[in-house]
Request: fold
Amino acid sequence: MKRTIIYLTFTASLLIINSCERSFEEINTDTSKIINPSVGSLLAPVQYEMGSYSYNRANDYTFDVMQTALDFPNEGNTYSRYYLTEGSGSGLWNTSYRWLKQVNDLRKYAEKEQNNNYLAISMVLNAWIYANLTDSFGDIPFSEAVKIDEGITTPKFDKQKDIYIKLLNDLKEANSLFDTTKTLTETDLFYNANGNTAGILSWKKFCNSLSLRLLTRILKRNGEVNVNERIQEIVNDPTTYPLFQSNEDSAVLALSGVSPYLPPIARPQDFTSYRAAGEFFVETMKNNNDPRMSLFFTQAKDLVTNQNIGYKGAPSGYALGTSFTYQPSNMNQNLAKAPLKVLIMTYSEVQFILAELAYRGIIGGSAQTYYETGVKKIIEQWGSTVPADYFANPNVAYNNTLERIMLQKYISLFFVDQQQWYEFRRTGFPVLPDNGGLLNNAQMPVRFMYPTTTKVMNTANYNAAVQSMGGDNINIKMWWNQ
Reply:
């Protein structure tokens, strides 16, 4: 022990001596910071962190508000009862802006190194993250955001319309920048484009598929923005604007479970603690005879006999005082275990988008074909097999209604960040039941309130945004949904 103390004292003395010989500037320089990183080193951290966070948003928010799962047993104020606070969106806000700063750095270094593939990817990631932010809050800091290095600490809030126009224009430019003859220089967690040029083509397809998602989101604003024209430009020219063509093109974050690519939830048991599967989601899949039932859920149990009674969820937002004679189905813990694939955007989603656009007459093609492809491909994306007679089921068969398209799209968006919530707000589908215990006058929240820190630290711009939007509460509709 004495030798250890002497050694530590000696070491400390050396540190003191050495520090005395260093200048003030040297002592106060953060030598851990990489001053000039390679452009490729900036990509994988953004993919991992934002992909993992998207998984968590589906798990801890979207599941509850969209009746996929709920806290159980819990009769308190929860998302499944439409109870939101100023803190409900804080994690999304803070995490997104933290990694948007690195996306901005990715873009700067791509320009510096004249690497068009990384430049295009930075624009795709920027659009992906900002679209989720504005779809959650409405007007947000955008044109002046993540520019603290330029001395902007209180950025203005941009209008959602202006944000969408800029993102769509950026995606169009990004599409023209991709060079499918060159690979990336370092790790790419979505498409392994550092190992093959096919990955660059998949990035290009992701770019245009994301454009289609954003354009469909703002269908109501056609005329104010040239939405239909841009949609037709993409769909009618697949050579210039390739879209996802198979499940292999889907944007997916594959997590091996080997450090540093660990699952978002450290302990699988936490995924199912004090929770039940939502009755609406379970019953919808049961009615479909969906082959993924056992993949997604456990079976319910009779409380008296402790015997399995099949798949039976709990009603979301159930009336206070409700008693249960069964232990509801829960989520399958395997959904939280590695190896794990986090869905960012799927081929199935694109097919459902095309089905809706064909149904509305905006594009040509068969809405039924797009619809059936969307249904089949998401089942296969999860590793299941589609039964030969699947579409003979009247609950699944295409019936030429938007409601049917959106119900199956809702199922397909299982575990895709907050997309179920956005699409419900846009279309009103699927029709979710009121089980007697919903708050907010049983109205689905249509946005998050701005975080408290933003109100305090950026007060003037916050107040201007609130005045422009008509308030800062969960029932204020944003531009694309007015």
